Amino acid sequence: MSLSRRTFLGTASVLAVAAACGPDEAPSASPTTSGQATTVTNCGASLSFAQAPSRVVSTYPAMTELMIALGLTDKLAGQINTNLSPPLPEYAEEYAKVQVLAEAEPSVEVLLSARPDLILADGPYHFDGKRLPTIEDLAKRKIPVYVNQQFCEGKKLEGKVMQAYTDIENLGKIFGVADKATALADQAKGRLDAVKAKLSGVRPVRTALVTVFDKALYVDAGGLYTDVLQTAGGENLTQQSELPKGEYYGQISAEVVAKKNPDAIVFTYLDDASRRDSEAFLRAAFANTAAVKNGRMIATAEATFSGALRSFPGLEQLAKDLHPDAF
C-alpha cells in the first residue's frame, strides 16, 4: 500500500539523509559495465537503456524484493517507503543491505542524493511535481521511472496479478538477466496455477474486503484488490459503483457492509499493531454477521495487493484461509 493508494494515511516522518545534490542539479550516473542496450515498454511509454542501470532507487518494498530475487541487490542505491511493509523472510537478509533513504516519502533532495539512474515505482502518484518531480521532469534529468504495470496511470482498476510477469521480463531485459527472469516468472506462474487447480470447482466465499484506518472503515474493489481476492476463491461483495469514480477504495459505513452479511471478512494491515486494532474494530462493528459468528476474520498484509512478487505468496495464503479444505 502506498500513500497515493491510501491518501488517508497522510505523510509519515522522513529520515534525514544528507543531500549530495540540490533539487535543480542533475545527478551524475555511475558508469556500468553489465547489460546491453535495450528498450522496454512500460505503461505505454518506451524506456531505452544504453546499458544496465547501476544506481536504482525503489519506492516500495515489493519492488526492492523483485530486484533482490533477480540477483540485483548490488544495483540498488536506496529504497523508500520501507514503513509500508516488512520484507518477506526469504529476502530479509539482502533487503537489510539496501540503504534506507526514507521510511516514507522522501524530499527531492533526499531522492536525488542517491544519484539514481533508474527509479522503480509502485505507482505514478509519487511524481506529482509537488512531493517529487514529475516523471517528465526526471526524464529530462536522464532519470527514467519504471512503474509497476499493475498501477499504470489510468489503468489501476484493470490491474491483474499476471501483469507481474511483464515486470519480471522487462527488468530481466534491462539488467541483462533474462534467463533468471524467465525462471522467476515460471516459478511465480507455477505457484499461481497450483492455487487455481486447488480451487477448481470450489464455490467462492462471499467476502467483504476492508481496511480500517483511524477508526474509519474503507472497502476495496477493482484492480489488483479484486483480482487477488477472486483468484484466491473469494467473491468481493463491494461493487465498483459503491466507490469514488476511478478508485479501488473508499470510505463506507459499517451498516452498509453489515447488511450484506459476508461469510468472511478479509482485512488488510501494515504491522502487528494495525492488525490487532483492525480486528478489534471489525469484531465490534460486525458482531452479528456470519463472518464474525463463524470466526471467518482473515488478516492479510496490505503488501499482498502491491503486485510484483508479493501477490503470489499473499494470494496463496489467502486461498488457504478462505478454503482450508481445498489444501
Automatic annotation (TrEMBL):
Residues passing through the membrane, by range: none
Residue stretches making up the Fe/B12 periplasmic-binding domain: 55-326
Signal peptide coordinates: 1-18
InterPro entries: ABC_Transporter_SBP (IPR050902), ABC_transptr_periplasmic_BD (IPR002491), TAT_signal (IPR006311), TAT_signal_bac_arc (IPR019546)
Swiss-Prot/TrEMBL keywords: Signal
Pfam family, one: Peripla_BP_2
Origin superkingdom: Bacteria
Keyword Zinc among record annotations: no
Database matches in Gene3D superfamilies: Nitrogenase molybdenum iron protein domain (3.40.50.1980)
Family: Belongs to the bacterial solute-binding protein 8 family.
Entry protein name: ABC transporter substrate-binding protein
Lineage: Bacteria, Bacillati, Actinomycetota, Actinomycetes, Propionibacteriales
